[in-house]
Amino acid sequence: MAAGFWKNHENLYHAITNGKVIFGLTIFIIIILLAIFGPMITPYDYEEYAGAAYMPPSTQHFFGTTIMGKDVFTRTVYGLRSTLLVGFIAGTIATLLGCFIGFLAGYYGGRLFDEFLMMITNIFVVIPQLALLIVISAFLEVRGIAVMAIIVAATSWPWLARAVRAQTLSLRNQEYVNLSRISSLKVSRILREDIASNMFSYVFMAYIQQFNGTMLATVQLEFLGLGPTKGVSLGLVMQNAVNWNGIQLGMWWWAIIPGLILTIMITALYFVNTGLDAAFNPRLREM
Amino acid sequence: MGRYLSKKIVVYIITFFLAITINFIIPRMMPGDPIQSLMSRFSIMEGGRAIIEEQLTLLFNLDEPLLTQFFNFIRSIFTGDFGISIMQFPKPVSVIIRDAIIYDILLLLPAIILSYIIGNRLGALSGVNRIADNIMMPVFYFLSSSPYFWMAGVVAFFLGVKLDWLPISGAYGVTMTPGLNWRFIADYLRHWFLPFFSMFLVQLGGWAIGMRNMIIYERSSNYSKYMGALGASDRLIRRYGYRNGILPQVTGLALRIAGLIGGAITVETVFNYPGLGRMMLNSVLNQDYFLLQGIFLAIVSMALVANFVVDIIYMFIDPRVRLSFSGEV
């Protein structure tokens, strides 16, 4: 029974036994757990003056304290929660949007509709995302997590749409797609059953990459002080550190650790992606 | 030669107009009456009231039809009139941008070019050498995963504060006056290095990863195997692989420019560097909408020009595009 299952899902077997995937996933899960349970285990509140100011990491304050005596660990885990949430929602929306547009443009490749979609995509690729995000968020007086996620997603989908379109174009002229087409199946069904299902591994990896991208866009925006107007976020913690001269004062636990956690997480997801790539493409497996 | 370039140019022109349109819409979507809120801020300034009233009427003309407003707006942009900054009153926005943009260009251009060259070399090396690959790849993944401003913080902390080698704030010392003398240039370079270096590091990772994958892919392709079977040297095969691998990297260049320009905004904030990025953030914080509009347009234009240059480079290095001009293919 079990052996039969793995025979049918060879790719999945290669994926979950790949060293890089296991390594990356482990780190990723640890950081997710930190974001979920961190706020529960810390005895402080993120705005609370928890102890003496300017303290390096200790058993009392895992990541030390800020210049005003706030607990950096508490602020980091709360911030991580907010940033991850925005990045996750934005990444999901952007992936769905990118796939939707990419499938349609690819399926109708060469026609006016495709040209139109690709023109929009190319425009969005050229305009620096962060500049656009700054302009948009400057005029939103109240920014919640949902609003943040939507504006980040709205500016993140283009490269994915372009990539999915290219893949769809190459699948579209396969025999079995033609067969479906002359059987006059509905376009939505052809896209779903013939094209999307064959691109699952590709889209999944693109999803991880998109998540990485939206996390970076989110944290940059937060760092500029244009993150959620309420609560604390990872970028905000680092913005405070820079604004209060945390770097000049040598407070690495304040200025560097919060970003390090995010960077490690994104690196871990990179590893997962490379591992999955090797698992899904047998040609790379030998490497 | 038309199709390749003209299609691109059409997209760029549309992008430019989209940026103008975004600028046009923004103040009109602001909550409340933008004119009144700006007026109240200006009435406390000496002589500010009359000037700003004229500026605002010129810019908004809210009682005219929307289309007329839009054309007036476009006309003022093409005549280089972006209005007057509120933050640095009464300096025109166009002057502020002109003074700031040079810092961006001198920061971005070397960061792009050097990271591209070195990253591709290192990537090619790790594509053929397993030991190098195992050591370098995790580092490259880490570099390209770093947010720009975080890398700027790390670089500033270690090289600027711990080792105290280089200054970490501003574009030149407070006692300096900008000018073309060696003292100023040396001082400028000392301030320039850390912001440049942090952007360089983040970019480096991305190029190396891309090139490594391309080389591995090219080496497993049929032409490489065929050349190997014919007895071609490893070095020659590698060189051919590199040439083929570099093409998608140039396409990648176009995709990354936008990200790098965005990253520069945050890096300049960390180093308090007087480029467009920090200026843009200041204009947001001070609700200086004219300056914000002007800078947004300047940044988009910078990205457009950069993309256009990449298109032209691509034309020259890809024989297929080049030959299609002369009708040989």
Q: Mind explaining what this structure looks like?
A:
The complex is a heterodimer of chains A (287) and B (329). Chain A has helices spanning 2-8, 10-16, 19-41, 72-107, 112-126, 129-138, 145-154, 158-172, 175-182, 187-196, 200-223, 234-243, 252-255, 257-280, 282-285. Chain A is mainly alpha-helical and 287 residues long. In chain A, helix 4 packs antiparallel against helix 5 (112-126). Chain B is mainly alpha-helical. Helix content of chain B is 79%, strand content 0%. In chain B, helix 7 crosses helix 8. At the A-B interface, helix 5, helix 6, helix 11, helix 12 and helix 14 of A face helix 1, helix 6, helix 7, helix 10 and helix 11 of B.
The secondary-structure class of chain A comes to mainly alpha
Largest interface: A-B, 47 and 53 residues
Overall structural class of chain B, as computed from helix and strand content, comes to: mainly alpha
Characterize the largest beta sheet of chain A: strand count, sense, and whether it forms a barrel.
none
Mean pLDDT of chain B: 83
Distance between the termini of chain A: 31 Å
Into which percentage range does the β-strand content of chain B fall?
under 5%
H/I helix tally of chain B: 13
